[in-house]
Amino acid sequence: MWLLKLINLALLCFGLILESDSAKILGIFFVPSISHQIAYRPIWRELSIRGHNVTVISPNILNDSSLTNLTEIDISFAYDILGKFDLQKNAAKENFLVKNFITIHNMMFSVMHAILEYGAVQDLIHSDEEFDLILVESLHPLVFSFGARFKAPIIAVSSIEVFVYIYDIFANPTHPISNPDMMMYFEREPSFIERIRSLTHNVVSRLCYYWWILPQSDVLARMYFGEDMPDLEKIISNTSLLLINRNPIMHSPRPNVPTVIEIGQMHIREKKNLPEDLQTYLDSSEKGVVYFSLGSNIKSANLSGGLQEIIKQALSELPFDIIWKWETEQLPGKPDNVLIREWLPQQDILGHPNVKVFVTQGGLQSIEEAVVNGVPMVGIPFWMDQFNNVKILADKGMGIGLNYNTMTKEELRKAIFEVATNSKFKKQLEKAKNILLDQPVTGLNKAIWWIEYVLRHKETTHLRTPSADMSFFQYFMVDVFAFLLLSICIFVYLLKMAFRMIVGSKNNKIKTN
Ligand SMILES: *[C@@H]1O[C@H](CO)[C@@H](O)[C@H](O)[C@H]1NC(C)=O
Ligand SMILES: *[C@@H]1O[C@H](CO)[C@@H](O)[C@H](O)[C@H]1NC(C)=O
Hints:
Layout: H1 2-21, E1 24-28, H2 34-49, E2 53-58, E3 70-74, H3 78-83, H4 87-90, H5 97-117, H6 119-125, E4 133-137, H7 145-149, E5 154-158, H8 164-170, H9 192-225, H10 232-237, E6 241-245, E7 260-263, H11 276-283, E8 289-293, H12 305-316, E9 321-325, E10 338-341, H13 346-350, E11 355-360, H14 364-372, E12 377-379, H15 386-395, E13 399-401, H16 409-421, H17 423-437, H18 443-457, H19 472-475, H20 478-512
Parallel strand pairs: 1-2, 1-4, 2-3, 4-5, 5-6, 6-7, 8-9, 8-11, 9-10, 11-12, 12-13
Helix pairs in contact: 5-9, 12-16
The structure holds 2-acetamido-2-deoxy-beta-D-glucopyranose (NAG) (2 copies).
One 2-acetamido-2-deoxy-beta-D-glucopyranose binds next to helix 2.
């Protein structure tokens, strides 16, 4: 009998230990883009394996029955909403930064509406579930509402650089010349015009945020979460940490406050075997292989007819074998040296030694995959940060960038040929790869450590820089400068008066003399 009691007690203690170590975590990773989701999936997978009870809202759920501590809410319908915006046609041109910014946020509002209206999400919002921590993808302010709804600390996560207003939450420096916004890019010595553009962009995107996005989100937060929601700006300003995917190859170094943590290469995994047909194709290629994929948002099959023709002809004239990610079954007039597939295991293809060039749209995750495999690139950017990424590739000698609006067949052919045959690109990639992989800890382990850090301490006010709680006037010392300027003015004025008096009295003396 006492033995049984003892065992019971032991089990109870064991259970308590487990209990205290495992937390209830809610993750809202809502952007319908596989390149975002593949960066986040390792986080929620790992957290659940480590014994945390994880609930996730995502358009790309893992759906892995062996992950018993994981509950996933599938919002893959969000892809259809993004599809309606027809990125191929509407991809705003690089120059119209503000238009681009507005397009992105209009898209995100549509997606947010659909997700928050969705039955399973509404059930969650109105359930009596409790959570110890909320992880949110930082691309829309509305998702931070979950933090207030469940009265839990929030960690913001981003698979790409963030807009200036997200850095503002943590008072992370956003110097428009030293570290321009993710949609701006210039080389180290920006011209006068570029400096004006960058500052203007920082100011205008903040105005859009504080006058349009944030107030509208606040109204929606009340609509979907209830009238008793606190002010959204207050909720957001209380965010504990930002985990952001940045790396020293693709981003210029920046000063970060202690609550902004750079993680990297979240989705890079161990090599897997290729499907047999692809393995044979790659192994047997004597001339080398060009891998062509514009990622998941921009579908080759939806490009304009003219552009498709240019690509087809350029590829057909190259002395290489080509693997093209083409999203329908047929490619009319498919050149003989081209193999098409609707879906391809990109990381494993790039890991094959016969791959010479990767033609990419320049998404960050694709570039990370190319860099860790040492494959030089030809970049054809379409939107968002892709323009920046491709310019960086070109500047750092890791590839050649092209403009899809003006690209000719000859340009594309020459660029691919040059990158495939000139060894300077490959050398540059080897160097970049060595830098990227030389880290004290992997991006995933770093992310998990910081997430559990917030679970242990419940908040991070001890890491918060005082400037995060200052007003614009305090931060820029407007009153101090105004006072000093006024003092100088008064001083100069008094000096002038004194001078006049001295000169005046002298003149008087001369006169009387
Ligand atoms: C689920 O969590 C428990 C602890 O709560 C842990 O021991 C177990 O390994 C986890 N299971 C899986 C499949 O991750
Ligand atoms: C801020 O977050 C902490 C948890 O990290 C929470 O206890 C507190 O109530 C939050 N404050 C506001 C104003 O939301």
